[in-house]
Amino acid sequence: MRIVLGVGGGIAAYKVASLLRLFTEAGHNVTVIPTEAATRFVGTATWEALSGNPVSNSVFDGVHQVNHVRLGHEADLVVIAPATADLLARAATGQADDLLTNTLLMAHGPVLFAPAMHTEMWQHPATQANVETLRSRGAAVLEPATGRLTGADSGPGRLPEPEAIFDAALALMQGQTDFQMPLAGRTVTISAGGTREPLDPVRFLGNRSSGKQGVALAVAARNAGATVRLLAAHMDVPPPPGVEVVPVETALQLREAALAAAGDSDVFIMSAAVADFRPAVVSDTKIKKRDDSADPVITLVRNPDILQELVDVRNAAGPAGQHRLIVGFAAETGDSQGDVLAYAEAKLQRKGCDLLVVNHVGSDKVFGQDTNSVVILSRSGSEPQEAAGTKAEVSAAIISRIGYELNHVALN
């Protein structure tokens, strides 16, 4: 694919170097066209070195090749990142005062804008009108992420992570013109992996969780436009790029991190396998196996119910907390008293979370595997939803359902 990557004059221009690398490593031929203002943030030498192509922003360079016409005409895709308020305005009004805006007027293929600017600039009626104009003409304009901006300010206006822009661009190139980012502007916290409860300096009580499902959820949420925070217990897989990682080990550490993150989270997904119990006493030295003494007796105490506490904190916040959506996971096995869904329905009602993702687990199911099969239960009374396939596919279904619940179902 021949891609034109237009770079606007914002501080987020430095992040676009990572986006360029993603495109080139995927085998695409990328021509970078920075605005004059963009070169004050990142120089042309950087773009030439990473793209392998010459870089210019003047219509008077390479006149014999008629670049102001040729580049847009030949491009399979044009991506603008960061799309500043000024660049959106010039694109919406059809200005052609530099090589990039000329290229936009000549573009025959899909065009993707990834905005980045201060919150007030993004929310200004003029900017919103320009965005609507571009969308009405067929351009794809992503919603900016919410997070830390220049200086001490925070809010919507942050450039989406390069991986999210890359995935949106791939979707656009594949003809998915109706793609959307249902979690754009949202902050999603996800717990992943399995907690470990120490017995002594070398031993612990743990579980079989690999963290694969939690990591897949983080990727899906990131790709849906969210700002993602991953509370990572023990995992067999690395965390994905483009997300904030908070490492934890024990259930008590996870509880502390979860409660700290709850306040600014629009969505909280408790997918970690949290130990129900921990040793009442942790030995400072390795517990020895001795022939002249009795085997040790390990007394367990119950760990706090983090999911229940998150619901309680949300409910105690009153109207200010009602926008927060909480998703629990239930790793269940049936027995003579009931089947998996019966136990899960009871858990959903008991915990009061908004969605409950139910796994039927066993020695050869879910834990450590690359595939999964779940049922998503909703407190809103919606029909149970089944999802099966790779953990990435299951995660996409879960994130899609979360987006639906946030945007279409009123939280009680």
β-strand amount: 15-25%
Largest sheet: 8 strands, mixed
Give the strand order of the largest sheet, numbering strands 1, 2, ... along the chain.
Answer: 12-11-8-13-16-17-18-19
Radius of gyration: 25 Å
The structure class reads alpha/beta
At CATH level 3, the topology of the largest domain is Rossmann fold
Low-confidence stretches: none
Got a strand count? 19
**Overall mean pLDDT:** 88
Q: What characteristics describe this protein?
A:
13 helices, Rossmann fold, elongated, alpha/beta, 19 strands, 5-stranded parallel β-sheet
Description:
34% of the residues lie in helices and 23% in strands. The protein is an alpha/beta fold and 412 residues long. The protein has 2 domains: 172 residues, Rossmann fold, CATH 3.40.50; 216 residues, Rossmann fold, CATH 3.40.50. The strands form 5 sheets. It has an 8-stranded mixed sheet, sandwiched between helices. Helix 12 links the parallel strand 16 and strand 17. The longest helix is centred in the last third of the chain and has 18 residues. The radius of gyration is 25 Å and the shape is elongated. The model has no long low-confidence stretch (mean pLDDT 88).
